[in-house]
TrEMBL record:
Naturally occurring in which organism (per UniProt): Floridaenema aerugineum BLCC-F46
Keywords from the UniProt entry: DNA-directed RNA polymerase, Nucleotidyltransferase, Transcription, Transferase
Swiss-Prot/TrEMBL catalytic activity: RNA(n) + a ribonucleoside 5'-triphosphate = RNA(n+1) + diphosphate
Family indicated by similarity: Belongs to the RNA polymerase subunit omega family.
Main EC class the enzyme belongs to: transferase
Function as written in the Swiss-Prot or TrEMBL entry: Promotes RNA polymerase assembly. Latches the N- and C-terminal regions of the beta' subunit thereby facilitating its interaction with the beta and alpha subunits.
Protein name: DNA-directed RNA polymerase subunit omega
One family name in Pfam for this protein: RNA_pol_Rpb6
Gene Ontology CC terms: DNA-directed RNA polymerase complex
Assigned EC number: 2.7.7.6
Family matches, as NCBIfam families: PRK00392.2-5
UniProt entry tagged with the keyword Transcription: yes
Length: 77
């Protein structure tokens, strides 16, 4: 019997979240650039403070942006 690892499950979740971001965006290129910029910014901001060394900055950016999309109450105005 094939056993799934945690990383495979999270990869699937990241793919679904990325698809949701692209579907919600009016411009695919623009959302891709926004994810890349956020990942780059987070990489340099959290260089010393690493929360999860296994999570890459791009994956973290996708998760954060999809959370902001689905849960607008987490964004403070």
């Amino acid at each position: 019997m094939y056993k799934r690892s945690k990383f495979e499950t999270s990869q699937t979740q990241v793919m679904y979240r990325a698809e949701d971001l692209i579907r919600a965006a009016s411009n695919r290129y623009r959302i891709t650039v926004q994810v890349a910029n956020r990942a780059k910014r987070r990489r340099y901001e959290d260089f010393e403070n690493i929360d999860d060394p296994m999570m890459k900055p791009v994956i973290r950016a996708i998760i954060e942006m999809s959370d902001e999309l689905t849960q607008p109450e987490i964004i403070g105005e």
